[in-house]
Specification:
The chain is mainly alpha-helical and about 270 residues long. It folds into two domains: about 140 residues, no CATH class; about 100 residues, Four Helix Bundle (Hemerythrin (Met), subunit A), CATH 1.20.120.290. Helix content is about 70%, strand content about 5%. The protein has a two-stranded antiparallel ribbon with strand order 1-2. Helix 3 crosses helix 9, helix 6 packs antiparallel against helix 7 and helix 8 runs antiparallel to helix 11.
Length: about 270
C-alpha cells in the first residue's frame, strides 16, 4: 500500500506487483499514475467515456483495474461480438475519412455500419438495450455530421462509437482486451483536441490513458509482452512531458502506432 498526499488529502492506493518487479517502470511513471488515480477518483470519472457508461461496472473496471464479474445472462452478448467489432472498425475508417475530408467514402462506410446496427436490434437482450440506445443515437449524430460535412464533429462522433462498441463487447472477454481499443480511443481524442488547441482537455486525456494502461500492463506481461510494456511506458513519459497542442498531436500518432503492436501481442498468441 502506498500513501499519497496531494491537495491536502491523503489517499491509500494499492500498488500492482509489476511496479516492484519491473525496474524499467521508473518512479516518475509510478508517481504520475498515483496522481492520476487521485484526480480520477475525485472528479474525472465519466468525463471522456460516453455518458451512457458513467456508472456501469465496465467503466469501473476501466478506471480502477478491478475484475468485476459479469451480471447474469451476459453470455448472450457474445452472439453480437463480431457485429460490434465490425462497427468499431467501420467507425475507425469513418474517423480517418472525415479527417481527410473524404465524405463519399465516409458515407459509404456509414451505410455499412447502419446495416449492422439494424441487425443488432433483432438480437440484443435487455441487458444491452442501453448500449444499443447509445450506439443508435451516436450513429444518427454521425449521419448528420457527415451530411453537413462537419469534419470535427464527425471525427468526435465516429470515435465515440468505437468506445461504445468496445465497452459493449467487454463481457464477452474478447481476445484483444477492451483497454487496447480504449487506448486507441484516447489517442484519437488527443488528435482531435490538439488540433482544436483545447489545452485544458489534453492532460485529462493523458491521465485517463494512464489508468487504462495500468490495467492493461499485467495482461501484456502474462502474454510475454514485457518489451512492449517497456516501450509503451517510455512513450507515455513523453506524453507526460508534452506542453503544447502540437506536441500532444504529434505524440498521439506515435502512440497509435504502438497500440497496434500491443494488439499483436494478443492476436499472435496460439
Amino acid at each position: 500500500m502506498f500513501y499519497l498526499r496531494n491537495l491536502h488529502n491523503v489517499i491509500a492506493v494499492p500498488i500492482h506487483p509489476i511496479f516492484i518487479h519491473k525496474p524499467h517502470l521508473r518512479l516518475t511513471f509510478l508517481f504520475n499514475l498515483l496522481v492520476a488515480l487521485f484526480f480520477q477518483t475525485i472528479f474525472l470519472l465519466g468525463d471522456v467515456i460516453p455518458v451512457a457508461y458513467a456508472h456501469t461496472a465496465d467503466e469501473k473496471t476501466i478506471s480502477h483495474g478491478n475484475n468485476v464479474p459479469s451480471p447474469p445472462g451476459t453470455h448472450k452478448t457474445c452472439s453480437i461480438r463480431d457485429e460490434l467489432e465490425q462497427i468499431a472498425g467501420y467507425a475507425e475508417d469513418i474517423f480517418e475519412f472525415a479527417k481527410a475530408g473524404k465524405w463519399k467514402r465516409a458515407s459509404k462506410k456509414l451505410t455499412a455500419l447502419e446495416k449492422i446496427e439494424l441487425n443488432l436490434a433483432n438480437i440484443v437482450s435487455s441487458i444491452e438495450t442501453e448500449n444499443l440506445a447509445a450506439l443508435t443515437k451516436s450513429t444518427s449524430d454521425l449521419e448528420r455530421n457527415i451530411s453537413a460535412r462537419n469534419r470535427q464533429d464527425a471525427m468526435i462522433t465516429a470515435n465515440k462509437i468505437t468506445a461504445i462498441a468496445a465497452l459493449s463487447t467487454k463481457s464477452c472477454k474478447p481476445r484483444v482486451p477492451t483497454n487496447v481499443a480504449l487506448l486507441e480511443y484516447y489517442c484519437r481524442e488527443l488528435e482531435i483536441w490538439s488540433e482544436l488547441k483545447t489545452t485544458d482537455k489534453l492532460p485529462v486525456i493523458v491521465i485517463k490513458m494512464h489508468l487504462t494502461w495500468q490495467s492493461l500492463m499485467p495482461l501484456l506481461i502474462a502474454e510475454g509482452g514485457s518489451k512492449n510494456v517497456k516501450k509503451f511506458s517510455e512513450i507515455m513519459k513523453h506524453l507526460d512531458a508534452a506542453k503544447t497542442p502540437e506536441e500532444f498531436g504529434y505524440l498521439a500518432i506515435s502512440v497509435l502506432d504502438e497500440v497496434d503492436n500491443l494488439e499483436k501481442v494478443f492476436t499472435h498468441r496460439p
